[in-house]
Design brief:
Distance between the termini of chain A: 25 Å
Largest sheet of chain A: none
Mean pLDDT of chain B: 88
Number of domains of chain A: 1
Shape of chain A: globular
Bound molecules: adenosine-5'-diphosphate, magnesium ion
Radius of gyration of chain B: 25 Å
Strand content of chain B: 25-35%
Number of domains of chain B: 2
Strand order of the largest sheet of chain B: 6-7-8-3-9-10
Number of helices of chain A: 10
CATH class of the largest domain in chain B: Alpha Beta
Shape of chain B: elongated
Oligomer: heterodimer
Number of helices of chain B: 11
Chain lengths: 253, 321
């Protein structure tokens, strides 16, 4: 195991975060704060409780998930896309690092960033609304699992993309809508019955539901199902990455 | 001596069906400077990329220090430093950060003293905290070398190290490469400048259209280069070289209408005067004469455009008749 190699990639990627502090940390925190002000404080005060939780508090898990998914994907996809684009990938390819070590370095850094960001949003939320975390262990588990899974997903996108547009298209056209429609701002039970069924095809529903359960003990779907779906997606991403490295798809000629 | 790199039956066909390399056999000796010489598109970069693990081979195998580049890729790659043809760097990283990254990536524990030594050798020490984007082109190129040397490789690949580099920097580069060789590093460089191969290499390999057409000691090549030919057009073709001239380095070309005298350009006495005198006494007349020097350039051009040139020569020979 080339631990120095993993460390080098990890540190390099983290250094990029600090260099681009505004973009990678400050701007998601700011935009989440705006959500709290608009939906939590302004509109939320006019709304009743959702499943026994004040609206401002109710949206916290969803907002964190929204940021977590977006940031995991964009950090990891950019992290591997950029060296491919600039040509510096040659060095990683010629180094004595295995596929696992490359993924550990890039995905590890991307996941770390988005976990830090998730926690930062949680702290920011405290300034706007009161909330409690009933199951801290599960909260952390969901946070870490989701960050890792979607960083893996981002890594796959970064390898697949051969231009900047492709890099943006999946997060923008698929992930963001799925998150908004995944119950970040409402409970599934508030939807008409037909849409409740349709919504179950949205994988993000399971993530948000499980995460919210960790906070308030209320959920749209069964907890086991939430964990199961998250793990399933994790395994899917791992398999895809294994295939990518085995075939050299889009990284080696 | 045990070769440090051994390439056997190597071939590469790219996904589009283009065959960039075929049947390459090559051994690189420990501690030598080997120049891979060939025109653009010959397959030099492809060959290097395979050895370094960036491109997968289609056929054949390669060992570096006896480690197979695929089975024992970790050990093989640890021994290699690569300076690619294209300069590509992380613009916003610092010089120091970049070399530190490279060393770690290759699995070596931190060693600031070694990195400092390399940066000083490459005159980059003053720039160590600067962002890469602020460096000049020449500095960036030197940084690429520093990165490749950061993990103390025993083999260094330089892919067209002096392409587009000004004369002064080129001299520096050559100086540095010699220094590396003296410290025991094996250097493989590609170039399409013959002058560079001539100046630098211990051995030269010529590659064209994906085939290795010649591998030779530079000294041997230089000897061939030191030869010059004087050729005489004879009005009456000779069947054979007259016995009276048999002791001279002579040969007849084509149908016997061209007599060629080979001499060493570097020797004090070329023997041309003597040759012409004896020709006169043998009653052989000639209509025209000219000299021809076989330079490395010509050897190279001949090898590379061999078939076509041969054909053209024949044509022009025919029109002269
Ligand atoms: N990724 C690739 N896909 C298809 N053809 C390629 C690829 N890379 C190089 N080639 C082709 O292979 C040949 C050899 O290229 P290269 O090894 O770069 O030559 P050199 O370095 O000697 O100039 C060229 O004709 C080039 O167009
Ligand atoms: Mg090349």
């Amino acid at each position: 195991m080339n631990l120095h190699g993993i460390g080098a990639i990890y540190k390099f990627e983290m250094a990029r975060t600090w260099r681009t502090l505004m973009q990678s940390i400050a701007s998601p925190v700011l935009s989440t704060s705006l959500y709290f002000i608009v939906f939590g404080a302004a509109i939320g005060s006019r709304m009743g409780e959702v499943e026994g939780v004040s609206y401002g508090a109710f949206i916290i898990p969803g907002l964190i998930m929204l940021a977590l998914l977006g940031e995991s994907i964009s950090n990891a996809s950019f992290g591997i896309f950029f060296p491919k684009f600039s040509g510096t990938i040659y060095e990683v390819l010629s180094a004595p690092v295995s596929a696992f070590e490359i993924v550990a370095g890039y995905v590890g850094a991307a996941a770390t960033k988005s976990i830090l960001l998730g926690l930062l949003i949680l702290i920011t939320a405290r300034f706007f609304v009161d909330y409690e975390i009933l199951h801290p262990f599960w909260m952390i588990t969901f946070l870490v699992l989701t960050a890792v899974t979607f960083s893996l997903f981002g890594f796959i996108i970064g390898i697949w993309a051969d231009d900047f547009q492709k890099l943006q298209v999946i997060p923008l056209m698929i992930v963001t809508p799925l998150t908004f429609l995944g119950g970040a701002f409402y409970s599934i039970s508030m939807l008409p019955e037909f849409w409740q069924k349709v919504t179950l095809f949205n994988p993000v529903v399971y993530l948000i539901s499980g995460f919210r359960w960790a906070f308030y003990g209320v959920s749209d779907v069964n907890l086991g199902l939430s964990v199961g779906m998250t793990l399933l997606f994790l395994v899917l991403c791992l398999t895809t990455i294994w295939w990518i490295f085995r075939t050299g798809y889009r990284i080696k000629t | 001596m045990e070769p440090i790199i051994s390439i056997k039956g190597l071939g590469k066909t790219y996904a589009g069906g283009f065959t960039a390399l075929q049947n390459i056999d090559l051994e690189i000796q420990r501690g030598e400077i080997f120049a891979l010489l060939g025109p653009n598109g010959a397959g030099k970069t492809t060959l290097i990329s395979i050895v370094c693990g960036i491109v997968n081979p289609s056929q054949g195998n390669v060992t570096v220090s006896d480690f197979d580049i695929q089975r024992d890729y970790r050990s093989a790659r640890r021994a290699i430093g690569l300076v690619p043809q294209e300069i590509s760097t992380d613009s916003f990283e610092s010089v120091w950060g970049a070399v530190k990254f490279s060393r770690g990536l290759f699995g070596k524990p931190p060693n600031p003293a070694h990195l400092e030594k390399i940066l000083r050798q490459l005159s980059l020490w003053e720039k160590k905290d600067n962002k890469i984007i602020t460096l000049s082109g020449g500095m960036k190129r030197r940084l690429m070398i520093a990165k490749a040397l950061s993990h103390e490789p025993s083999v260094l690949f330089l892919d067209e190290p002096t392409a587009g580099v000004d004369v002064e920097l080129r001299q520096d580069m050559w100086e540095m490469v010699r220094g590396l060789r003296d410290s025991g590093v094996t250097v493989i460089l590609t170039t399409h400048y013959i002058e560079e191969a001539e100046e630098m290499a211990d051995r030269v390999g010529v590659i064209n259209r994906g085939e290795l057409v010649l591998v030779e000691d530079k000294k041997t090549l230089m000897q061939k280069m030191g030869e010059k030919e004087l050729s005489l057009q004879l009005p009456e073709p000779l069947q054979k070289i007259p016995d009276s001239l048999a002791d001279l380095p002579l040969r007849l070309n084509g149908d016997g209408s061209q007599l060629i005298y080979r001499f060493d350009i570097k020797s004090e006495n070329t023997g041309i005067a003597e040759f012409l005198r004896r020709l006169n006494s043998a009653n052989i007349e000639f209509r025209d004469l000219h000299t021809r020097e076989s330079s490395l350039e010509e050897i190279f051009v001949n090898l590379v455009h061999g078939a076509r040139r041969e054909h053209e020569k024949q044509l022009s020979g025919e029109t002269q008749e």
